[in-house]
Fold:
Amino acid sequence: MLLRRAGEELVAWVKTLASAAVYATLIVTFGFQVARVEGRSMEPTLQDQDRLIVNKAAYRFFGEPQVGDIVMLDYPRDPDKSFVKRIVAEAGDTVRIENGRVFVNEVLQPDLYVPPEFRSYENHGPEVVQEAYYFVMGDHRNNSSDSRHWGQVPKGYIIGRVQLRWWPLTEMRTF
Structure:
């Protein structure tokens, strides 16, 4: 009797753990991912070693990436690596950078999140963003490897939207 009861208890625990593993896998695959910022390309918005929650379901089920969104993406030159960047332009937009000032469809972008000391002073384009692609840039414009250097990002390379910086706790915020 005692042995049978212990066996039933063990089976119940195995079922619970298996269910938890399946749920966790579904959440990580389709829902959310924890990520860490490595580098300074998104300063001052994000700092090196910040911890993030990336909403992978945002674009899979609830809409399209939008200009201004901070996204995690597969690096186009090596999809085994991931980057965090800001979407600056979408399909059909014309991007031109003149003396570091970004123009989208000939409209100067205010880029209020880019402090003067982080601005770059190069020229780029004009370049029309292809269908199902995005033009991304880091907020630290003079210290960012981005679409200016390695080209436009295919929609399928965008992993998800950066939803929350949760570490350090004193800097927690949503995006």
